[in-house]
Amino acid sequence: MKEPIISNCEKAFLLEAISESRRLDGRGMFDYRDLSIRFGKDYGCCEVSMGQTRVLGQVSCEIQQPKATRPNEGLLHINVGLSPMGAPHFETGRQSISSIQLNRLLEKCIKDSKCIDLESLCIVAEEKVWCIRLDLNILNHEGNLIDCASVAALAALSHFRRPDVELTSEGLIIYEAAVKEPIPLGIKHTPICVSFAIFNKGKNIVVDPSELEERVAEAEFTLGVNGYKELCGVHLSGSTQSGPTIVRQCANKALKRAVSVVALIKETLAKDSELRGSNTERGFVECVRQGTITSHGTPKICLPIKHKLPVETMETNHEDESSCDEVEVIGSGTVELKNSSVLATDTAEQVMEVEEKPKVEEIALSDDEDEVQIL
Amino acid sequence: MPRPLLHSLLSLILNQLTRVLHAVCSVYKQNFLAMNSNSSNGTHSDDKEECSVRPILCELGVITRPDGSAILTQGHTVVMSAVYGPSEVRMQRLQVDRAYVETVFRPKAGVPNTSDRLRETIIRDTCETAMIATLYPRTTISVILQEMEDSGGLLACSINASCLALMDSGVSMKFLFAAVTCGVTEDDLIIVDPDADKLKECKASLTFAFDSINKNVIASYTSGTFPVQTYNNGLEKCRQASDFLFDFYRDIVRKYASTL
């Protein structure tokens, strides 16, 4: 599917709003959307959402032969998958301009800034090294993919643990996680990307642009910065008549942002390791927002397989099934089931009442008409 | 007799009737309760453990871009699904009499391999059977699935997630569908909805998808070797477990619809 086009009036409206320092989603020019990080059950798995933009990151590893030019260094591959889930114009299996740009930007920010200690990934020089692969899947594209992806990348890399290995005379032994504690990657610094959209010949700048803002902007300026307030990548796409003041202004904002984001990542990581230590439930099961009208859950349910009542009518059949659920439930799920049925009957009665009233009126009207005709 | 009076009388009778029906149901319920407690105290206590379904959690409309989306967790297996469509179709895939249904399955790590392609085909065939594709000629409906966590029964979870996303998107369907996996142990015992640890001990695994009306099989996928009798037993157990999933679908839609 092709990317939907933006109409001229939509564009003009957005530009006018921006020139009056207003944004369509009500944020200030330098307000960021909410950032949240959730870790999965496996090591190196995380989901990051920035407003409605969502990215899933997963790090995996395998043993490979190193490059001939770098015989004592491990390998790091970064792969951004623009899954069609994120937006209808993303296609699988084909490298588009935006996916190449995203990939290259992340490589510049993470790989070229040497944030991962690749030498520690060497097992036998010139023969065996660890190859770390970082996969990022775009779940929902609502603008500013690069920032979200870079946070997901850093969070996944810092969460990841590789299995411990030992070289013996017989060969290489790879220990499972249960046998020997897996080892985290050596991370020297913590780079993330911060993007700015530039409008109206460099007069207006917004941070964390939404999808529409990204497409209307004349230029997008992305800075790679780390938690130590160092620059590790600069990228400008599009063209704008901006001077050095803008670059300096953006850099200052980006540095502040990087410090807070890195602090959040560290805080979430600490919470996760605490949960892992205490052996409580974790993973994406917690990711489903519960208690909203669009969500629903049930505790573990044992099914009475052997006995089943003969089906009489649709309604009795359903009642029987729900009753056997209630019998077997271990936990507090029964209350929820009952509530839902009560709700349903309530509304059904209401609907019946509502339906009756207009009918009465109609009948009264027709009676009147009859009378008129008789007269 | 004036018509308004007749109407109110009719509704009164209807109300009474439903009340009687409820009373009958509750009697049934109690009988059933007694039966059940007998069976659990009796010889089938071992079966109970095998026939449990892992806890299910679901949220509809989790992401904003697609027309319909859902996240479904069955135990620790988590799948996110999205549906786009009916939308513009590519010329080479255009079908004049029906919608072109495409499915994409994305693993969380690495590039999609042949087993993912196989999964895609099974899910596509299942979705296509359920939806009324002939209502949307010259269009495409795409179902996209993203694996988020796998701890057994990924295919069944994906099929269920795709059904929930289709429900959320409002694409017309003939019936709903639900898939259940069961494992076959070395001594030919059947475990319904096993997790990854239990699945490792199994010599075979069977996955069935059922329709919501007649509970007929609309998809079947097996791996490993097992006797024919075990297949039939597994099918029957999965069919009964699917009732629970259809109830779950009904509950979430009821909750959704009663609040709106």
Note down, in words, how this protein is organized.
By secondary structure, chain A is an alpha+beta fold. Chain A has two domains: 8-287, 2-Layer Sandwich (Ribosomal Protein S5, domain 2), CATH 3.30.230; 314-374, no CATH class. Helix content of chain A is 37%, strand content 24%. Chain A contains seven helices and 16 strands. Chain A has helices spanning 8-19, 97-111, 145-159, 211-216, 244-278, 314-328, 333-374; strands spanning 35-39, 45-50, 53-64, 75-81, 122-124, 128-140, 161-162, 165-167, 172-174, 183-184, 191-199, 204-207, 219-226, 231-238, 295-298, 301-302. In chain A, strands 1, 2, 3, 4, 5 and 6 form a six-stranded mixed beta sheet that branches. Chain A has a four-stranded antiparallel beta sheet with strand order 12-11-13-14. In chain A, α2 packs across α3 (145-159). The radius of gyration of chain A is 29 Å and the shape is globular. By secondary structure, chain B is of the alpha+beta class. Chain B folds into two domains: 1-42; 45-259, GHMP Kinase, N-terminal domain (Ribosomal Protein S5, domain 2), CATH 3.30.230. Chain B has six helices and ten strands. Chain B has helices spanning 3-41, 45-50, 114-130, 154-169, 196-201, 228-259; strands spanning 52-53, 56-60, 68-74, 77-87, 100-106, 140-149, 177-184, 190-192, 204-211, 217-224. In chain B, strands 2-3-4-6-5 form a five-stranded mixed beta sheet, with helices on one face. In chain B, a hairpin with a 2-residue loop joins β3 and β4. In chain B, α3 (114-130) crosses α4. The longest helix of chain B is centred in the N-terminal third of the chain and has 39 residues, at 3-41. The two termini of chain B are 39 Å apart. Residues 25-49 of chain B have low confidence and may be disordered. At the A-B interface, β3, β6, β15, β16 and α6 of A face α1, α2, β1, β2 and β4 of B. Chain A: It comes from Cloeon dipterum. Chain A: It is found in: Cytoplasm; Nucleus, Nucleolus. Chain A: GO terms for molecular function: mRNA 3'-UTR AU-rich region binding. Chain A: Belongs to the RNase PH family. Chain A: Keywords: Cytoplasm, Exosome, Nucleus, RNA-binding, rRNA processing.
